[in-house]
Design a protein that fits this description.
The chain has 374 residues and is of the alpha/beta class. It is built from 9 helices and 25 strands. InterPro entries: Amidohydro-rel, GlcNAc_6-P_deAcase, Metal-dep_hydrolase_composite, Metal_Hydrolase.
């Protein structure tokens, strides 16, 4: 397959006009005679990687249900998200075991949908004071043995684990596991000094920056300030609900486009109508883009990652920076960038074609058009 005339995302030069050659499942330097498609006036970008979402189309990763995970993977692929690292909630270990077993089974047996490339353990090692939509009854002290049991159960799929660094034993936990998984600071009351200590201990990411953590102020910069002074990456939910447009612009200026990871944080209502749903065993009401618990706490998102990327652009983020944050940085965060995340020879041909209004026209997965048309 030969894609000609399109504006192709390049990690060094932004968008460039060049051909993309596909041979079998991979991007290639040459290809045998085959179909050629003129994509003049369209963008060709890498398939996105969502490293933090909980559910879609009525299903939740935390259910540990095989059919539901397949529905989620199919939905994500239809939205141009070709790699997924779904997130569990704060749950009892027995349910987290079921979630990890389900992920391992899906990875080995699924024949369709986005590639499941990891598991994100957003809970249970979090702060009660900043639990947000997490179930406080199931919070657990940071526990290396528990994490390793879940790593084994997932057959190596656990790539991210969130921790509140002020919790007893958290810094020791981070030092112990930092070479095994990406540790992300989350749902925390940590001040600047505590967060800085966590980064020195080995934490490399911040879960949904600004949300479920102290505010960034001029005398108490907190987690946000400590993150800025480190070299970590920061997740950002850009759904038009969680973060004000001005703050989105400020984050890209402060941290630079190489350190921002766009995430969706979607719950099971993504792709569904308004109504009553659940998240982590708690009731959630959805109206438009807003999902809330009964007390008004924001409970995840209903905006898929492609729409989050599009929203970032509408807020003034250059398209090349938004693509980097949704495709490149996210793939690097879970260690899959050698195989996906850029339009380069030798990588899987997981690509998305957008028109000039950034509407999705086609999804190419392992070299085949699986949604839309060229």
């Amino acid at each position: 397959m030969r894609l000609t005339g399109g504006k192709v995302y390049d990690v060094r030069d932004g968008f460039v006009q060049r051909d993309v050659l596909i041979d079998g499942e991979c991007i290639a330097d040459s290809c045998p005679d085959g179909a050629s498609y003129d994509l003049a006036g369209r963008y060709v970008i890498p398939g996105l990687t969502d490293v933090h979402f909980h559910g879609a189309r009525g299903h939740d990763f935390s259910d540990g249900d095989a059919e539901g995970l397949q529905v989620m993977a199919d939905y994500e692929l239809s939205r141009g998200v070709t790699q997924i690292c779904p997130a569990g909630m704060t749950l009892l270990e027995e349910q987290l075991v079921k979630v990890c077993q389900n992920a391992a089974h899906h990875r080995k047996n699924s024949k369709s949908g986005a590639l499941l490339c990891g598991v994100n353990l957003e809970g249970p090692f979090l702060s009660y004071a900043k639990k947000g939509a997490q179930n406080g009854d199931w919070l657990h002290a940071p526990d290396v043995a528990m994490l390793r049991r879940l790593e084994d159960t997932s057959e190596g799929l656990v790539k991210l684990v969130s921790v509140a660094p002020e919790e007893p034993g958290a810094l020791e936990f981070i030092k112990e596991v930092a070479d095994e998984v990406t540790v992300s600071i989350a749902h925390t009351t940590a001040d600047y000094d505590t967060a800085s200590a966590a980064f020195r201990a080995g934490a490399r990411q911040v879960t949904h920056l600004f949300n479920a953590m102290p505010p960034f102020t001029h005398r108490a910069p907190g987690v946000v300030g400590a993150a800025f002074d480190s070299d970590c990456k920061v997740e950002l939910i850009c759904d038009g609900v969680h973060i004000h447009p001005s703050v989105v612009r400020a984050v890209f200026q402060l941290f630079g486009p190489k350190r921002v990871i766009l995430i969706s944080d979607t719950m099971r209502a993504a792709g569904m109508s308004d109504g009553a749903y659940t998240l982590g065993g708690q009731d959630v009401n959805v109206k438009g883009k807003l999902a809330t618990l009964a007390d008004g706490t924001i409970a995840g998102s209903v905006t898929d990652l492609m729409n989050c990327m599009r929203t970032a652009v509408s807020f003034g983020i250059p398209l090349e920076d938004a693509v980097r944050a949704a495709a490149v940085n996210s793939a690097k965060a879970i260690g899959i960038y050698s195989r996906v995340g850029s339009v380069e020879s030798g990588k899987l041909a997981n690509l998305v074609v957008l028109d000039e209004e950034l509407e999705l026209k086609a999804v190419i997965f392992k070299g085949q058009v699986v949604h839309g048309s060229l």
